[in-house]
Amino acid sequence: MLTTAPRLHVRRPSPTTAEFTVTTRPPPTLAVRLLSSLLLVLRVLLFLSSILLLQAAWSQSPYAAPFLSPSPTKTPTTTPDNPPADALFFSITTFWHALRFIHASVPGRLAHRIVASHAVPLPVLIPGCLLAAYATLLRTHTTESLLVLRGLGIQTSSTSGSYLSAAATRFIPTEKIQDVLVNEAFRGFEVRYYLIVIVEGEEDLVVVFPRLLPRKKIVETVWRGVRGCLWEADGTAGGGGWNTRKMDERWQGGV
């Protein structure tokens, strides 16, 4: 319910600009918002639990003893060589104090007991916690877009699989675009239609929406909109058409 089949959203801020977005994000209904909020809470809890277990496993190693051992407190003084406490908020000392606080907290002690019980061997616990923490950073949906600017060019954008990396974007100037076509290829036993851009001076074709590969109706709608925004209003439409199939052989059966 948190993902749907690829659907198209068209936005036209001006007659010379069009943005085509294909996404698997469902419409923002009340049920979807509630499920998304619940999933966010579960992600945070799972991520924090994984970090606590990893910290507990690390605290039992001999390398953690110098950092977790109590040290005598000193009254801070403010001098030119000793800046005030707020200036040291993001210092390494504050980081180790935070580790000691987590180690002494109730969740920290609980995680320490779980690790100390050896119910789960460390060679299994540590990779499992790392995988669980990474899983909380994965996106549940994919969004790809195509921005068309008449007289300037087109820009493709595709979100990454996790929140750790930014979206992949590419801009192609109008003078480099030879044509925008729809091609077809076999994917298993299924015929798939996809939008391509032929760029001058490049052997490889630029596939639009490469991760989602939406259905034929969406591809045709985007194809007509791109050509209409780029060329047809000026009467300078490029060659090619809907049934263009004689493209580079490496795309036949490769998408």
From TrEMBL:
<keyword id="KW-1133">Transmembrane helix</keyword>
<feature type="domain" description="Phosphatidylinositol N-acetylglucosaminyltransferase subunit H conserved">
    <location>
        <begin position="145"/>
        <end position="210"/>
    </location>
</feature>
<dbReference type="GO" id="GO:0016757">
    <property type="term" value="F:glycosyltransferase activity"/>
</dbReference>
<dbReference type="Pfam" id="PF10181">
    <property type="entry name" value="PIG-H"/>
</dbReference>
<protein>
    <submittedName>
        <fullName>Phosphatidylinositol N-acetylglucosaminyltransferase subunit gpi15</fullName>
    </submittedName>
</protein>
<dbReference type="GO" id="GO:0006506">
    <property type="term" value="P:GPI anchor biosynthetic process"/>
</dbReference>
<keyword id="KW-0808">Transferase</keyword>
<feature type="transmembrane region" description="Helical">
    <location>
        <begin position="30"/>
        <end position="54"/>
    </location>
</feature>
<comment type="pathway">
    <text>Glycolipid biosynthesis; glycosylphosphatidylinositol-anchor biosynthesis.</text>
</comment>
<keyword id="KW-0328">Glycosyltransferase</keyword>
<comment type="similarity">
    <text>Belongs to the PIGH family.</text>
</comment>
<dbReference type="GO" id="GO:0000506">
    <property type="term" value="C:glycosylphosphatidylinositol-N-acetylglucosaminyltransferase (GPI-GnT) complex"/>
</dbReference>
<dbReference type="InterPro" id="IPR044215">
    <property type="entry name" value="PIG-H"/>
</dbReference>
<keyword id="KW-0812">Transmembrane</keyword>
<keyword id="KW-0472">Membrane</keyword>
<dbReference type="InterPro" id="IPR019328">
    <property type="entry name" value="PIGH-H_dom"/>
</dbReference>
